[in-house]
From TrEMBL:
Residues 1-41 form the Putative regulatory protein FmdB zinc ribbon domain. It comes from Fervidicola ferrireducens. This is Putative regulatory protein FmdB zinc ribbon domain-containing protein. InterPro entries: Regulatory_FmdB_Zinc_ribbon (IPR013429). Pfam families: Zn_ribbon_8 (PF09723). NCBIfam families: CxxC_CxxC_SSSS (TIGR02605). The lineage of its organism: Bacteria, Bacillati, Bacillota, Clostridia, Thermosediminibacterales.
Amino acid sequence: MPTYDFICENCGHKFSEFVSLREKDSVKCPVCNGKAKQRFTGFMYMGKGGTESGGCSGSCGSCSGCG
Ligand SMILES: [Zn+2]
């Protein structure tokens, strides 16, 4: 079972929860017990080691855009 990243829609608290696919739609925030939604952060790491500069803000230090 994978760990998913969530963010609370109420207080903005970010946390990781070990839940099943079915349960991840009803995850509660551990801080305020508000409704949490799943975070998708994978796109931030896709460019690692690549040469594409399209999505780089000039701070990754490893792509052609930072040369
Ligand atoms: Zn919360």
